[in-house]
Amino acid sequence: MPAEWEPHARTWMCWPCRAELWGDGMDAAKRAHAAVARAIARFEPVTIAANPADASEASDMTGADIFAVPLDDSWARDIGPTFVKDPAGDRAAIGWRFNAWGGKYAPFDRDAAFAAAAAAQAGVPFHPASIICEGGAIHSDGQGTILTTEQCLLNPNRNPGLTRAVAEQVLHYAIGARRVIWLGDGFSDDETDGHVDNIACFAKPGTVILGVPDSADHPDAAPVRIARARLKAEGFEVIELLQPRNIRRDAQGRLLQTSYVNFYLSKDGLIMPSFDDPHDERARETLALAFPGRDITVVPALDIVAGGGGIHCITQQEPQ
C-alpha cells in the first residue's frame, strides 16, 4: 500500500446523498465537498462518484470528472478501494468487506459494491479482502508499516473473534503489511469506532503525527497517552499536533470529531481542515513544518464533520 504522499493518478470523492444523515445540512455538506474537490483539483485530477440523479449537480458545483454510480453515502475513504502496487509498479485494488461502520446505517448495499465499481472504472484488477475494514482504519508509510487501532479492526461489530495475529496476516496478504502498529482502544469516536485517520498518520517513514487533545479532561486524553507511549516504544519520532480547543457536539449531544489529523495530501499540496477554532493557525504551522514545501490549502470542515467524518474521510487516493 503506497504512502499518501506518493504520486497520485487522481483523487476519488463521493457526492453527499444520505438525506437522513445530513438533514438540513445537506446543502452545506455539498458546498463543503465541492470546496475540497476544487482545492485538490489545483494539484491533480478529481473524480467524483455520484448517484445518477445527482451527477449534473456534482459536475456544476465542482467541475470535476463525474462517475455516475449508485451510492448510499459519501465517505470515499471508507467505501472506496485501497489501491496497492507491486514491485513492478502494476496497480490493483483491494475491496474490504463493508457493513456501514458496524451496522450503524442502512441500507449500505450500494456502498458495499462501490469499491469494485471504482476499480473497474480505474481499469485495475480487483481483489476482495476477507475482513470488514474501512480505509480510514489504516494508514501506510509506503514501506510496509501500517497504523491502526484495536478499537476499530477488532471490534465485534465488524470482525467478531478476530485476533491481532490473524488481522496482521490479512493485512500482510492484502496490502503488503510487514509491521502493524496497534494504537489502542477507548477513543471517543463512536461513529467510526476509532478510525486511525482521526488519531495519527505518517509524516514520513519513522515519523508519526499524533493528534493531542488540548485538555487533560478531554475524553481522548488517556487513549492518546497510550498511543504515544506505544509509538515511542516502537522507535517512532512523534510530532504532536494540538487538536482544536473547542469541543463541539451535534444536536443529539454526540461529540464531533474535529481532528486536524484528518487532512489530505495531494500532489505538492496539503488540504487541511479548519474549525473556526483558536488552534487552526497553530495546526497549519505544525503541518507546514512536518511537510516542508507543500502548498497548504485550509478548507472549513465543520459542515463535513457534522456528518461524522472529515476531509481525509471524503477522499481516496489512486496512485500512479
Structural write-up:
- The protein has one domain: 5-stranded Propeller (L-arginine/glycine Amidinotransferase, Chain A), CATH 3.75.10.10.
- It has a 4-stranded mixed beta sheet. Strands 4-5-6 form a 3-stranded mixed beta sheet, sandwiched between helices. Strands 7-8-9 form a 3-stranded mixed beta sheet, with helices on both faces.
- Helices cover 29% and strands 25% of the residues.
- It is built from 12 helices and 16 strands.
- With 320 residues, the protein is an alpha/beta fold.
- The mean pLDDT is 97.
- Strand 7 and strand 8 form a beta hairpin.
Short description:
The chain is an alpha/beta fold and 320 residues long.
| Widest beta sheet: strand line-up | 3-2-1-16
- Overall structural domain count: 1
Number of strands: 16
Q: Please give the CATH architecture.
A: 5-stranded Propeller
Q: What is the count of DSSP helices, taking H or I runs of 4+ residues?
A: 12
Query: Helices and strands, in N-to-C order?
Result: EHHEHEHEEHHHEEEHHEEEHEEEHEHE
Counting copies of identical and different chains, the oligomeric state is single chain
Overall CATH class: Alpha Beta
The proportion of residues forming helix, as a percent range, comes to: 25-40%
The helix/strand class is alpha/beta
> Outline, from the CA principal axes?
globular
The first-to-last residue Cα distance is: 12 Å
Percentage of residues in strands? 25-35%
What is Rg? 18 Å
CATH topology: L-arginine/glycine Amidinotransferase, Chain A
Q: Overall pLDDT, averaged?
A: 97
- Please mark out the parts with pLDDT under 50 across 5 or more consecutive residues, or reply none: none
What is the H level of CATH, i.e. the homologous superfamily?
A: L-arginine/glycine Amidinotransferase, Chain A
